[in-house]
Amino acid sequence: MKNKDPKSVPNRRKTPREKDKFFQCMVFINVLGWFVFIGALLVFHDARPEFTSGMQAFWGIEARQGWSQTLTLYLAGLLSLCLLLSVTVLIMKRRRNRRDSDHFGINGYVLLLTAVSSLIILYFEYTAPL
């Protein structure tokens, strides 16, 4: 059995949150989730049906009336990854924050709610009959 000096082991409760590796990992996953969501927004812009203006109708310019199948699959994949990352952050936050003085943090819940609602809307929008 090793005899460890209590002064050599850092006390987790006295270290600042910004220097804790678990907290840094949680923040990294959270930021990664938001970047994935921004990527999903960019894919959504190209996947949705195109808007046909009056000028396009007048000149007879064709516009895509339905969702792009390949980009919609990418969009659903990105939103699912975003959902997975936000659930991971919420589980990590629940494991870490046990005291009343710990910060709540709402952006994980916002990301979760936005990803779930986007997936639901995408499902009903994509499967709706024309």
Rg over C-alpha atoms, rounded to the nearest angstrom? 22 Å
Mean pLDDT: 81
Fraction of residues in β-strands: under 5%
**End-to-end gap:** 72 Å
Q: What profile does the largest beta sheet have? A: none
Q: Please tell me what the overall shape is.
A: elongated
Give the quaternary arrangement of the chains.
Answer: single chain
Describe the structure concisely for a colleague.
The protein is an all-alpha fold.
List keywords for this structure.
mainly alpha
Explain the overall architecture:
This protein is mostly helical and 130 residues long. 62% of the residues lie in helices and 0% in strands. The protein is built from four helices and no strands. The protein has helices at 21-47, 54-59, 69-96, 107-126.
Annotate the secondary structure layout.
Blueprint lengths: L20 H27 L6 H6 L9 H28 L10 H20 L4
